[in-house]
Write a structure and sequence with these properties.
9 helices
Length: 183
């Protein structure tokens, strides 16, 4: 089973789907008509995450959500909205929260504010396509900021392993050249 998550352009998915023709493939996207371009015409519509689901994803395995203060919940809601409730980005953020809470022993509100500060330092202050010009530009910034933040958690040997990643030719990346250099 191969999962291709968050496809935005058919031309990005087609080479992968063709190369993986002998595998069961699950593709997630926000495009309503993508199935007409792919071999299997089977699709399942799943609605977007609700804010309470995003909070659950952020806190799962990291903190007990029933013990959060109202301020912590408000901070988590802002963080979730900063990345437009995207599950993958929320999972990366959860990893940073785990690191700050468990390894750095920060209190909950400090850990959340630390993540916000790291994302804001990379230009991600809110997922607002009106202020940034386009949804694609917002998406690139959100993904890049979350990955850059996550790369800081890796040890040097582990970070070096990313240099062995294979990038499919013809598949574009939304990462900044600085992030790719780190990889």
């Amino acid at each position: 089973l191969v999962i291709i998550d968050d496809v935005w352009h058919v031309e990005d998915a087609e080479p992968l789907v063709r190369a993986l023709s002998n595998c069961k493939t699950v593709l997630t996207t926000r495009m309503n008509d993508i199935e007409q371009y792919l071999p299997s015409k089977q699709s399942v519509t799943v609605g977007p995450l609700e804010l309470n689901e995003a909070i659950t994803l952020l806190t799962s395995g990291v903190m007990n959500s029933s013990h959060l203060s109202q301020m912590d919940v408000a901070l988590l809601k802002g963080l979730a909205q900063d990345v437009h409730l995207w599950p993958l980005l929320l999972s990366l953020i959860r990893g940073q929260l785990f690191h700050d809470l468990k390894r750095n022993n920060l209190p909950c509100n400090s850990a959340i504010q630390n993540v916000q500060a790291k994302l804001h330092s990379r230009g991600l202050t809110a997922f607002d396509k009106n202020s940034m010009g386009s949804l694609d530009k917002c998406r690139k910034l959100a993904v890049s900021a979350c990955i850059e933040m996550t790369l800081e958690l890796l040890s040097k040997p582990l970070s070096d392993n990313f240099k062995m990643l294979i990038f499919w030719s013809g598949i574009g990346t939304s990462l900044s050249s600085e992030v790719l250099h780190k990889l």
